[in-house]
Amino acid sequence: MLLKDKIALVTGSTNNIGLGIARAFAREGAKVIIHSRHAEEAAKIARELNGDSFAADVSRPEQVGALFDHIRKNHRKLDILVNSVAAQASRAGVLELPLEEWNQTLATNLTGYFLTIQHAAKIMKEHGGGAIINISAASGERASPGRAAYSVSKGGIFALTKQAAVDLAPHKIRVNCIVSGIVGTPIGSKEMGNRKLEYDSIPLRRIGQPEEVGEAALFLVSEKASYITNAVLAVDGGRMNSMGSASGG
């Protein structure tokens, strides 16, 4: 097992990409801490994976602190952190976007990542190192019309990953980023019931599955990737780097 006896926190792990990652980690022997803002949903997935759970809003520093107090008290260490929480902002460009929505989107999608990295790294440093993955999107690289807050928050994740990788490398903490493309997730089915499976803008001509992102994350946090840090891995069927693709993801 690639992650035997490892303790892993996956934020936003009750559905979508986060759930796919949590399941991959649990299969490979990790004790996974399932996170959500909703305690009952987190507890349900934790029972499925024989893991632990905690409910917190990552945009609120005091709740992030409580999450990591729980980890210290109940697990004493943390080997892996995956930041998978993502607040979807409305379709508003820089001219129309309300400041309140801007602040809330960045508080969740960027400041929340910073807070969890900071708390996790302090624990990892005490125990000889660890691995961190931040989930981002192609819109952070190229922008997406009418999605100002979301795109800027995703672009900030790239910069945060680079900075954290450099600052934490002396403590043997690796930090990488996964760019997830269009993925056929449970919430996607619920909110976009008519979502098509094939896209001309994707070189591989199909959307991805949460399990495929999970396998990429599993590799990056395992010892097989022990010399990889400060990297951005696109798991998107080739979409981000294709001239014919539209952003929006």
General description of the model:
By secondary structure, this protein is an alpha/beta fold. The chain has a single domain (7-235), classed as Rossmann fold, CATH 3.40.50. The chain has 8 helices and 7 strands. It has a 7-stranded parallel beta sheet, with helices on both faces. Helix 1 (16-27) crosses helix 8. The radius of gyration is 17 Å and the shape is globular.
Strand content: 5-15%
User: How much helix is in the residues?
Assistant: 40-55%
| Largest sheet, spatial ordering of strands | 3-2-1-4-5-6-7
The assigned structural class equals: alpha/beta
- Stated plainly, the CATH topology is called Rossmann fold
Low-confidence stretches: none
The SSE string, one letter per element, is EHEHEHEHEHHEHHE
Major sheet characteristics = 7 strands, parallel
Gyration radius, in Å? 17 Å
Distance between the termini: 33 Å
> What is the CATH C level class, in words?
Alpha Beta
Arithmetic mean of pLDDT: 90
CATH architecture: 3-Layer(aba) Sandwich
Shape: globular
Number of H/I helices: 8
Give the name of the CATH superfamily.
Answer: NAD(P)-binding Rossmann-like Domain
